[in-house]
Amino acid sequence: MLERGMVVDKERTFCMIKPEGVARGLVGEILTRIEHKGYRIVALKMLRLTREMAEKHYAEHREKPFFRELVEHITSGPVIAMVLEGPGVISGLRKLMGATNPQEAAPGTIRGDYALETGQNIIHGADSLASAEREINLYFRPEEIMG
Ligand code: GDP
Ligand code: MG
Residue 75's domain is classified under what CATH number? Predict the structure, then answer.
């Protein structure tokens, strides 16, 4: 039982504060919400994505009509990339974020409180264990993650 619990507690996800979140000065607010919930920030960096990185990050959306806009947007300025750790953090972060369309996101969520447009929805979070692992590896080397 204890061993199972320990494995679950170590669940990790990938989170990004998108360019508009950084530009609007919402980094501190978002980190506060994540930390106050109880998740641990185990890796964090500021970077500006290259087109190649952005296309890899959003590979699942390659065929979508908004893909070009998405890549333009995510490469438009610096972002904050993070690895978060805690029990149930993958779905828990998605709950803190709120719905993809901020007009449908509940008040109290990050998107619900700070955004109005889908294309400017401030925050990204991996949506599954497979996505979390893929995205963490895209942005961080193992030695950059504090265990
Ligand atoms: P998420 O997992 O909640 O971020 O949503 P998705 O994985 O479905 O989409 C990825 C990102 O693409 C979203 O966060 C939006 O920023 C953007 N996006 C999704 N749908 C649209 C759209 O119809 N138009 C535009 N401009 N961006 C979109
Ligand atoms: Mg997604």
Answer: 3.30.70.141
